[in-house]
Amino acid sequence: MREADEQYFETLETELESAMDVAQRARQRGGDPKPEVEIPTARDMADRVENILGIDGVAERVRELEGQMSREEAALELVDDFVEGTVGDYDTREGKVEGAVRTAVALLTEGVVAAPIEGIDRVELLENDDGTEFINVYYAGPIRSAGGTAQALSVLVADYARALLGIDQYKAREEEIGRYAEEIDLYDKDTGLQYSPKEKETKFIAEHMPIMLDGEATGDEEVSGYRDLERVDSNSARGGMCLVLAEGIALKAPKIQRYTRNLDEVDWPWLQDLIDGTIGKDGEADSKDDGDQSDDASEDADGDDGGDEDSAEQAGPPRVDPAKKYLRDLIAGRPVFSHPSKSGGFRLRYGRARNHGFATAGVHPATMHLVDDFLATGTQIKTERPGKAAGVVPVDTIEGPTVRLANGDVRRIDDAEEALEVRNGVEKILDLGEYLVNYGEFVENNHPLAPASYTVEWWEQDFAAAGADVQAMRDSPTVDLADPSAEEALEWASEYDAPLHPKYTYLWHDVTVDQMGALADAIDEGQVAQTDGARETRPPDASRNGERGASGASRRGSDPRAADGDLVLPRTDDAQAALERLLVEHVQDEDRLVVPDWLPLVRTLGFDRSLEREWTIEDLSDRAKTYGEQEAADAIGYVDDELGDEAGRNAVLAVNEVSPFEIRERAPTRIGNRMGRPEKSERRDLSPAVHTLFPIGEAGGAQRSVADATKHADSMSETPGRVDVEVARRRCPDCGTETHEARCPECDAVAETVYVCPDCEMEVEPDESGRAECGRCETLASPTQYTELDVREIYRDALQSVGERETAFDTLKAVKGLTSEEKLPEPMEKGILRAKHDVSAFKDGTVRYDMTDLPVTAVRPAELDVDPDRLRHLGYETDIHGDPLTHADQLVELKVQDIVLSDGAAEHMLQTAAFVDDLLEQYYGLEPYYEFDDREELVGELVFGMAPHTSAATVGRVVGFTSAAVGYAHPYFHAAKRRNCFHPETKVWYEDEADDWHYGTIEELVESRLDDPETDDFGTLVEELDGDLAVPSLGDDGPCRRPVEAVSRHRAPDHLVRIEVGDRTLRVTPDHTMLRAGESGVKEVRASEIERGDALPAYDGGETTMTGAGATVPVADGAGVPTDAVTAVEYVESDVEFVYCLTVADTHRVAVEGTYVGQCDGDEDCVMLLMDGLLNFSKSYLPNKRGGQMDAPLVMSSRIDPSEIDDEAHNMDIMDRYPREFYEATRELADPAEVEDIMTIAEETLGTDREYTDFRHTHDTTDLAAGPDLSAYKTLGSMEEKMDAQLSLSRKLRAVVESDVAERIIEYHFLPDLIGNLRAFSRQEVRCLDCGESFRRMPLTGDCRECGGRVNLTVHEGSVTKYIDTAIRVADEFGARDYTKQRLKILETKIESVFENDHNKQSGIADFM
Amino acid sequence: MPLSTPARIVSELASRGYNAEREAVTKLADAPDPERALDRAVETMPDDALKLTAGHVEAVLDRAESRADATAGSQRAAEQENGETATRDPSVSTGTDSGVSPDAGGDVPHETKGSRDVDLSKRAIEVANDMTGNSTGTGEYSDFVSVFRDRYEKLASKLRGRVNHRPTDAIENMAGGSEAALIGMVSDIRSTASGHWLVELEDTNGTFPCLVMKDRPIADLVQQLLLDEVIAVDGTLADDSGILFVDSLHFPDVPRTHSPSTADRHVQAALISDVHVGSQEFMADAWHRFTDWLHTAEAEHVEYLLIAGDMVEGVGIYPDQDEELDIIDIYEQYEQFSEYLKEVPGDMEIRMIPGNHDAVRLAEPQPGFDEELRDIMTAHDATVHSNPALVTVEGVTVLMYHGVSLDEVIAELPDEEASYDDPHKAMYQLLKKRHVAPQYGGHTRLAPEDRDYLVIEEVPDVFHTGHVHKLGWGKYHNVLALNSGCWQAQTDFQKSVNIDPDAGFAPILDLDTLDMTVRKFA
């Protein structure tokens, strides 16, 4: 570590320590549950392995071996230990084998999955037919989570142990071999295998396997032959065994072989045959990637060099195949920016801007404005490649969009201001501009490199390679390599025989040969405007003309529109289309096209300066004429009319044949994308927001107002302000005073919890583990009591104690009841001060703010709104070039734990700081800590950053502010993720990859897809999916279907919340986001906040279910969803090891067990002010013991160790320039790993001195927050408004096929809604308007069975017919397919048929409504 | 007898041993004096011709200088009128089909096999419970209430004879420990902590909890209960009169004594279902074999064809269905279906009901086709009744119901009572409950009408369903329950859930004996 880094961390830690001191002193004084700051610690991998296995001595041995060998080798090494008995306490031989096998699996899975415990049921010794003994390993389904390698190695380990113990090999019987084959085939059909071995292969393996693979039955399907075998218990498929044999042995044979070679005792010679594929294998096992590689495009990198005829057999240019997956499940209101790989869409440019890292995409701010502000910094987009989604970051050093204005001008807009000026006049967005993606993103997604745009950074290297002294030119004040004049560019191209400069390289690959010919013909007839602009003649002399051409750009716009020296062409459709597709800036009127700065264009087309040419279209080679056939139709099956025939759709070869210099493909890769989620920056409030974690029961009304509670009385005879609540039962150890508070009210000593048996009312002493069980009744003693609290007095005392009056705040809101185990109330004083400063408490007592995460590695003081001096104080002494930091516009490298707050976050932090100061002063009686006057003082302060659902906080330091609604921080600052989850038996509906619907447990769903999961330090496994798996979900405007982006498995907390809804139960982690229906719609709340009687939105059946529907509540915009009432809520002891979760695209909600619930949030971090966290956080407030401990800062890391963070960040490239070889490799669609050697990614600096520095970037950007502050998605009102904006944008974009957008909206949004609601109507529940009771069916009496009140429907005609007109309008206006129109039409008649009286017909649905 | 309708003309022609093209019949009907025109036409027919062609009739009419106006409109009007006559007044022994096999020289070769010698005059068909064109519900709460009340009343009347019903509010006031009986709609079924069954029954006054002890033999019957069916119980009231301990439980059921009616002559009907034209899996070859067979002598007595829904595959039935459609346009699907129907001998009487794939509302009862669809289905008059409908063929009542509720019955009831392999057993349950889709709020959807068309008021002789694509039949209390298979091969979806459909079967029912034979054409 460098000195500077050490210093930096020391600064942080010193600061942290001094804050800790203050907090410690404070905590000793106040009424907090513990008199000290509460922080626990973490453990290492060896520990985890030992703990999961429960075998003593493993951890020690693992640590010993860890340094010396790989984990696989260590696993084999441990076999010796087990056999010798030095590790583990096993007497039997089978026990030793079992211990060894389990340990091996645990080791290979880092002790984070259940496979070693649940995946291996037992090991047995059985007898062969010849009387010898053999080993039988009995696998179970959960072995899946171990992954193929560990599965395969478990067999090897078993065999090795077998050999060491001198047990014979397994000799399979004939029928057993047949059984294996049949069973694996059955399992593959039934459940699906990643790799399906051929029957021959399976038999081969079964014959040679030295141990027997067995397992428990996992499916209902039974084999038809080979039944009732003596040595096989079941006739059903044994899932665990099938996995081990197919995905383990068969698929990972080469890996096993590597280890068998090192072992003398074990010899599996037959593996070679398996590897060689000599036994009926296709050899297709590994080639399962997307097939992005087009067959013949790989060697085409120089195929278009000057049009050499040597490669005539190559059909087309190198291209990646269009992918349309990102378009799936398009939502109304979230626009498509570009269809897959379509010309006019974003142009892929390689590079990393400073605000770029992983899962980000650089877009020009002008583009953000021109797409009607739908894109803002931090807006998530779904993208065609390389990943699935990316956060948008503004980068203004790339090219902006090209537009055609209503007056015919075609201009490239490279400036956000200009974009805003012309926005209203834009008729067509011809091109969205460049799209910056860094190399690391391709590495992270393991996506083959896509052909690079020809950009300045590449050209410069070509130019240097051609012999130019680029360095000298760069240093020369008269030369701008990035922006040369036409003359310069032409001169360089001819003098050095280098490719033409990208500035004048037009998008020849986007025009057809015919269009190019038409343009050349137009130039033949073209003239150059004369001095007075009135007459146009042929140029008298070439050199003069060239000068004019070069300077023409500045003079356009006057009328007549051709300025002096501009090239005036007769207007033809083809010529115009060519210019527009080439992105040549020009103006046009009725019959002329006027091109300024035209010289490079005509020279490229083989004309000389006097507009003469010596070629005709017939002279072109056949290959050039037919080049580009493969681009015929794009991924959505749309054929671009403009391009006509399939052949000759790419004029780049043709132009190279006529051009005197080389023309490169300017933008061969276009990237399609659409909007995903909008950015987020908002305070985190509980729902409803609370100020104090103090229980007031129902007395506070719906508002939970403490003031109301002080006046509340159930009856006239009662004293107001007395409420019965369940609170802690404690006693002062010193004076014996009984209390419900943390501290003794008399002597201020910390009181102790008193456990009382609920049955015999005896006090019980808790044992060492903290468990208090009544010795007599054997029931668990309770630490709480029901007591009457005088809220009025407590409130008055609290006000007095902090010296505040009631007028200092609006309403003080408390909670109804406490969810923590001991139910210790928070001192109300804290709540009073929170209310005063308008901040609210999270369930753990902290104040939080959520922000979308974006990475940044270098910042300017100016854009952060801080003074450079201030930053110098924070250790930013030099800028990235090593110059002293003096100016606000110098660029400095961001330190790893420094973060940039959004304006909203800063504001909120200031409020929090004021609260903390008051708290210290007025409550704890200490000096204020922060004393901020303006927000600049926040700079340098420490905060806690937390990723959602983690239990660890990272200390961060504020360095500045941004107007974007995001939190910028160093990529390394982002911690591992852990999510809230469902109980494994939770049932969900899902549509699998084969589009079949299933209703199964979430465990099956997730486990069967954890093929190659990523793990984090908490034992979470996450597997990203391709989005082929869909679940029913609930969007802003009602039920919908959404793809699942990732599945994950997490260690279960000690407790789960069990929620009963009707006859269904739901078990989730206490923090899980649930949806609660209220009057104003559906709100997200934590599961721990759900109460009996709450209405939860019910899944009314979607496409396939049979569950009932209930009362309807609006989601938003009048869209409705039925609800079910919660009949019971309770905390239950978790009986499982893991819980499961899905990441659902866009809506982040999923229907489980007939109820819509939330899933977790994605990339939003939250920040807390350090002192707030230290002072106010207590585990005692967390729901039930360690139950609700996710999302709570249980651990705090004060410094980031780059080696321990998520790999994602390691794949970020840290270069300031990509080498020429890289660009060339992209044209070969190389695998990102192939260019690893010439690229530098962060991984390479891990563990070195430079691990915290040298994060170079290739592109700068002026402002981190350029572009709109908020996405239009957030500023537009209703869904219909958003959708209209979306559709009108789709008309403007050349890269978007509007009919497809309309089609998708109808298909994925309107139709499911219409169909769903119509279905819901005909099986709805009804509800009493008076008492709210709902009934599954209409009562025969017609009136409410409970109160006799009026009963009415919950799904009305209005919610069924809501979208039909809009849908039909959109279908007509935007040209949806006939199929879709017919579906709508039939649906309309179906709706009519239900709601219309045949004897009293309305003429149309419109009259009817 | 005046020959004013095509039907009469056909019947007259048949009686003289002639067959005729549809158009020929129309032209005759439209002639100023059909009787004379017919006489003349028959007289002038060539000796070797078996079929009266349109051209021939035209020649005859021309000669009589009475050119008929044979526009499509009047043709349809005539046909329709004819159909209605038959429906309204079936006792008149007339044929109902205006069309005889389309054309002797037609393009479909097998049709040249000529006509069948059938006596149309003996045919009789009558349809009840058809709500097509009479859907009066407008989706109001009160509509729903009337439907359920109607269901209760109709089914309760079947049970009144068996128990002495006391209204729920009256029972509440009865003395504890007294005997009581109740007819109610099942509104809830729960098992208690101790494993007994708590069945909440509802009548028009309120609800009352009834407890079925787990050790009583009738506990098994609780397993067969579906929500919203109507049953009767009798038993003893608890001491506080708060609950009824059930001693016996009754279903409306079909009387064991039911004796089915039969036809007076030897005549047969083909009962098929789930044709799914338009699907890539539609088995055209099997269909051709079936229709070919209908032209053979073996099938000469098959005079009726009943189709229990899912004539076409439909559009938008499930996501991305268009990728599996052979014909993407729904109207073309019906046109094609109509074409396939033309292969059926022209004299056959065809009756259909819609299914869940057809282009009508999915909520039951489903009305028959609207005008637009009827216009497309020109062949054989395409009479489509509502689902369900009660069709009486020469005295044999056939309850036609598509069968969406079977899914639910099979899912809810124990395997031995109902399974996909024995779909008829699920049908027994419906007969027992005297309702084709009792359970509300689940899989089957309900459209409220002025009454409950789904109640099985009259005991049918044959209960005919489809939907589950499985073939199964059996007798329940002398009622023949038949689930006909389908004409669609296994779909990818079915493959994935391992449903092996029974495709290409045509059950043939002897209407005089109610014996059934199943013919396989796949």
UniProtKB/TrEMBL annotation, chain A:
Composition-biased stretches (Acidic residues): 292-312
GO biological process: DNA catabolic process; DNA-templated DNA replication; intein-mediated protein splicing
A Pfam family per the record: PolC_DP2_central
Catalytic reaction list: DNA(n) + a 2'-deoxyribonucleoside 5'-triphosphate = DNA(n+1) + diphosphate; Exonucleolytic cleavage in the 3'- to 5'-direction to yield nucleoside 5'-phosphates
Alphabetized GO MF terms: DNA binding; DNA-directed DNA polymerase activity; single-stranded DNA 3'-5' DNA exonuclease activity
Record region (Disordered): 279-322, 528-568
Entry keyword set: DNA replication, DNA-binding, DNA-directed DNA polymerase, Exonuclease, Hydrolase, Multifunctional enzyme, Nuclease, Nucleotidyltransferase, Transferase
EC number(s) stated in the UniProt entry for this protein: 2.7.7.7, 3.1.11.1
All copies of domain Hint, residue ranges: 979-1100
Compositionally biased residues, Basic and acidic residues: 279-291, 533-547
Subunit details: Heterodimer of a large subunit and a small subunit.
Entry's family note: Belongs to the archaeal DNA polymerase II family.
Function text: Possesses two activities: a DNA synthesis (polymerase) and an exonucleolytic activity that degrades single-stranded DNA in the 3'- to 5'-direction. Has a template-primer preference which is characteristic of a replicative DNA polymerase.
Protein name according to UniProt: DNA polymerase II large subunit
Organism whose genome encodes this protein: Haloarcula pellucida
TrEMBL record, chain B:
The keyword Lipid metabolism is annotated on this UniProt entry: no
EC numbers, comma separated: 2.7.7.7, 3.1.11.1
GO cellular component: DNA polymerase complex
Biased composition (Polar residues): 83-99
Amino acid composition bias (Basic and acidic residues), ranges on this chain: 108-121
Signal peptide segment: none
GO terms, biological process: DNA catabolic process; DNA strand elongation involved in DNA replication
UniProt keyword Hydrolase present: yes
Region span, Disordered: 63-121
GO molecular function, a single term: single-stranded DNA 3'-5' DNA exonuclease activity
Segments forming domain DNA polymerase alpha/delta/epsilon subunit B: 270-467
Pfam families, alphabetized: DNA_pol_E_B
UniProt protein name: DNA polymerase II small subunit
Gene from which this protein is expressed: polB
